[in-house]
Specification:
Length: 376
């Protein structure tokens, strides 16, 4: 007699176009529609429609663009100096909104940002932590004083790269329960071989990057590299998909901005298809999906030594800076722009690595196996 599939709750912070929800979407699509998976998110986003179709249910707890009554009450109580009471108020409100869901056999904290939702789950089901964060992201999501119990209590901790796994162990996870489960790509005929640049792409930009602008993705470094390329005779070479820096981050963009900033889009590669070099200058990134997606398209990648990038791009699969030195990044990018043979060699080697170790069709069943085991 076959073993019944467990009821799984997946807790996630939001359903935006960032790496954590994108990985979830790709895992569920690789498994096929799964009625026994229920996604619960604090905030919605553009992936909600897709996850609605892939999961049994997709529940968003906070309304878009405004603060809910429960959240306003929680904030008010917190400002009165009673944070524990505020947390209890928030938990009660969220529990009411999750009341329609079937009781879970196992809960997945998908990304540390989903951690606050675990306290709102009724009962004490086993849980799996799928960790996509390094130190800064983890500390912002789980109080450092609680991390030991949070990680030690998990049935399994899945880490997207070796530095993330090492961090989890240092912060309290049992090393016997930690498994590597990296980011994934969706392999198809259209992406396993380089394709011509699509119509409307950034055909004048030979260096491209993508992500939410700001400190973590280091878009100030993108501007610095663009200035260096300008001085080296490559004016207007750099583009970035994900929007322009704003607020304090905009200080790094000078009056003569050499970067073309493209707005966030459902398909960044419709803009980035013509890129000769993909730039990943992050300050802290566990394993950015843009590097995997670049490899799927045989693109040469220049990156900083953060998270899993040195492992991914080592042994001739890309160019990784020895430090966070912008001059090295700029000079290496300029060198690759002038050497098509080296670009092709790096791109081909990276594609081979991505196809071998990051295919969603291979990793999604492994992910599901961990969840079944945790459910008992």
């Amino acid at each position: 007699m076959s073993r019944p599939e467990p009821v799984v709750w997946v807790l996630v912070h939001d359903l935006g176009r960032s790496g954590v929800p994108i990985v979830l979407e790709r895992m569920l699509r690789a498994l096929g529609p799964v009625d026994h998976v229920h996604v619960v998110a604090v905030h919605g986003g553009p992936l909600r429609g897709s996850l609605d179709a892939l999961a049994g249910t997709c529940t968003v707890l906070e309304p878009e663009g405004r603060r809910s009554v429960g959240n306003a009450m929680s904030v008010g109580v917190r400002e009165l100096g009673a944070p524990q009471v505020a947390n209890r108020v928030q938990r009660v409100v969220w529990r009411r909104r999750m009341h329609h869901l079937p009781a879970p056999d196992v809960v997945v904290v998908h990304g540390a940002g989903g951690w606050p939702l675990l306290d709102a789950v009724v009962g004490d089901p086993p849980y799996v932590v799928h960790l996509h964060e390094l130190a800064t992201g983890l500390d912002r999501s789980i109080d450092p004083a609680r991390q030991v119990s949070a990680l030690a209590g998990a049935s399994r901790v899945l880490a997207v790269s070796r530095p993330v796994a090492d961090l989890a162990v240092r912060r309290g996870a049992d090393p016997r329960q930690v498994e590597l489960l990296p980011g994934v790509v969706e392999v198809s005929a259209s992406t396993t071989v380089p394709a011509p640049a699509p119509a409307g792409s950034a055909t004048g930009r030979v260096v491209m990057g993508a992500g939410v602008p700001g400190w973590r993705k280091a878009t100030d470094r993108v501007a610095a590299v663009a200035h260096e390329l300008d001085r080296a005779g490559r004016p207007g070479a750099v583009g970035w998909v994900g929007g322009a820096p704003s607020g304090q981050d905009a200080r790094w963009v000078s009056a003569t901005d050499p970067v073309r900033w493209y707005e966030e889009t459902d398909d960044p590669w419709a803009v980035m298809g013509a890129a000769e070099v993909v730039l990943v200058p992050s300050r802290e990134d566990p394993l950015p999906l843009v590097a995997l997606e670049a490899g799927l398209r045989s693109k040469a990648v220049v990156a900083t030594p953060t998270g899993g990038l040195p492992d991914l791009l080592g042994e001739g699969r890309g160019a990784v800076a020895p430090t966070h030195d912008v001059s090295w990044i700029a000079s290496t990018t300029a060198r690759l722009l002038g050497d098509p043979a080296e670009r092709m060699a790096l791109g081909a080697a990276l594609r081979e690595e991505v196809l071998a170790h990051h295919d969603a069709a291979v990793l999604a069943p492994r992910w599901w196996g961990f969840l079944r085991d945790a459910a008992g």
